[in-house]
């Protein structure tokens, strides 16, 4: 007799996933002073890869050449995206980092669109970026902003590669194997930084919580939600992440945003949700953003 599995309503699962990711980002910012962006990213991805390898048990020996060609660049893009995002988090508030990162998937959703109504979302997104830009010397770190935008570009690439990988490899296998390769572009920087020499049992526990809240738990919740929730609905809900990030930064990290920056977050959120609603083939925000 099979034991019934516990299941959350899909809407609640997605909301809990968003909260989990942003809580994980707050933990990451607490680790930066000791481990740096490279060390923190390496530990997060490495521990996540280990957990997923144990749970999913990826069948590496059975992969076909086409699957290798798909999953390896997918994993590399995932690792680089996370590394760049954490480099941004060192320099800019969490809410602004996530908002700028969202420009990547938003641009992908709008790419090639021929609907004149989509110009509205382009203008809104441009307005959001203009509001964040330090025209009046608002103290925004330009290097941090550049890292966040670069992470967004990697996110867009990751989505495209993820769609190709999903076509040739089951979702759980794709993420578990991809996470193994995600360590490759990050681990050399983590080792070179020497930050692992500063590890203590307390820091290792925080790193384990980071991997749990930023990767393992959101992955499980989103996979559960996507079983019954339409992809478009899922994408719209994920557009709330910049708001969740800004609130998380305010509540957990005491990061204050100006009125203009809050308006920028709102513009990007509305543009992302609107683009998802109106584009013919929306670019879904996939599980491992896991950006954040």
TrEMBL record:
It comes from Hymenobacter telluris. Keywords: Membrane, Transmembrane, Transmembrane helix. It is a multi-pass membrane protein. It holds the Pfam family EamA. InterPro entries: AA-Vitamin_Transporters, EamA_dom, EmrE-like. GO terms for cellular component: membrane. It is found in: Membrane. It comes from the Bacteria. Residues 143-273 form the EamA domain. This is EamA family transporter.
């Amino acid at each position: 007799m099979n034991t019934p599995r516990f299941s959350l309503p899909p809407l609640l699962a997605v909301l809990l996933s968003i909260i989990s990711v942003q809580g994980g980002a707050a933990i990451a910012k607490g680790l930066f002073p000791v481990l740096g962006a490279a060390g923190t990213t390496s530990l997060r991805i490495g521990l996540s890869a280990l957990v997923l390898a144990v749970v999913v048990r990826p069948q590496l020996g059975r992969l076909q050449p086409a699957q290798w060609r798909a999953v390896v660049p997918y994993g590399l893009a995932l690792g680089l995206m996370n590394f760049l995002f954490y480099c941004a988090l060192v320099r800019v508030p969490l809410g602004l980092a996530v908002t700028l990162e969202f420009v990547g998937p938003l641009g992908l959703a709008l790419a090639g669109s021929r609907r004149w109504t989509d110009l509205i979302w382009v203008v809104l997104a441009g307005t959001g970026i203009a509001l964040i830009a330090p025209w009046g010397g608002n103290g925004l770190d330009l290097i941090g902003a550049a890292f966040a935008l670069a992470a967004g570009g990697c996110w867009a690439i990751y989505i495209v590669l993820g769609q190709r990988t999903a076509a040739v490899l089951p979702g759980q296998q794709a993420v578990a194997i991809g996470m193994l390769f995600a360590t490759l572009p990050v681990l050399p920087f983590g080792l070179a930084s020497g930050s692992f020499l500063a590890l203590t049992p307390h820091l290792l526990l925080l790193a384990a919580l980071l991997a749990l809240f930023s990767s393992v738990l959101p992955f499980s919740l989103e996979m559960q939600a996507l079983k019954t929730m339409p992809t478009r609905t899922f994408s719209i809900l994920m557009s709330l992440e910049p708001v969740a990030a800004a609130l998380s930064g305010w509540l957990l990290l005491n990061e204050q945003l100006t009125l203009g920056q809050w308006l920028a977050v709102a513009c990007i959120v509305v543009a992302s949700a609107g683009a998802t609603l109106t584009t013919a083939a929306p670019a879904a925000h996939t599980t491992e953003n896991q950006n954040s």
